[in-house]
Amino acid sequence: MQAVILAGGLGTRLWPLTKTVPKPMVPIAGTPYLEHQLRLLQQQSITDIVLLTGYLSEQIEEHFGDGSRFGISIAYSKETTPLGTGGALRQAAPLLQESFLVIYGDSYLPIQYAEVLDTLANTSATGAVTVYDNQSEDTGVTNNIALDDGDFITKYKKDAPDDPLLQYVEAGVLAFKRSVLQRIPEGQVSLEQQIFPLLISERGLVGHITQERFYDIGTPERLERIAEQLA
After folding, report:
1. What integer pLDDT is reported at residue 169 of this predicted model?
2. Residues contacting residue 173 through CB under 8 Å, at least 6 positions apart
């Protein structure tokens, strides 16, 4: 199994903390956040890692190197100009397998990652999105995903708190077949804003439902919450 981690964001909501440190290297419980993610993957025997880096990428490469110190193998794909989540994935095409996980570099979800790839493999979909059943609304994130009876995603929309169809939250772990790369145009591209709607229109994006609460480091408040979890 291969995991691709989106680790190139600017982390503007954590400023000034991220003025001199890339968001994935923000310390959590005395350890760079990205290290927590990589150790979780290694524990599940996912050792083929591709890091998509950008802002202050040299700090990430200096700390993790080729990954051997952590029992994994790391390849890097570095943005020289911002490409967005989709553009960064397209640039990394020569490094990618026929199917692969994609994990946001600011989220932490302790699930069995192989199950997400299994969900993808057992459908005709091009992509799978792990979705959290947010009935208790304990994540602080507005519901943004609707599913049909077959768990295919029918709608993805951020910042629509009054939409009753949106009952799930994207949880930061995706899986794609390599064919998705053919759908990503050159330049700066957002997976969520440009590629998700395209796949949804083709019934090509399936949901992998989890009851496991996810955490992220998107804001100082959420940073404190995940620090309690990983301490």
Report:
1. 93
2. 101, 102, 103, 104, 107, 109, 111, 113, 116, 130, 208
Residue from 143, 123, 140 nearest 223 by CA: 140
Check if the beta carbon of residue 92 is closer than 8 Å to that of residue 7: no
d(CA 156, CA 162): 14
Q: Which residues of the chain have pLDDT under 50?
A: none
Angle, helix 33-43 to helix 57-64, in steps of 10 degrees = 50
**Cα-flanking dihedrals φ and ψ of residue 217, to 5°?**
-115, 30
- Beta pairing partners, 168: 133, 145
DSSP secondary structure code for residue 187 in this structure: S
Radius of gyration, CA atoms only, the chain: 17
Sign of CA dihedral 179, 41, 129, 186: negative
Domains and their CATH numbers in the chain: 2-230 (3.90.550.10)
Place of tokens 């995603």: 153
Beta carbons of 130 and 210 less than 8 angstroms apart: yes
Q: What is the pTM of this model?
A: 0.92
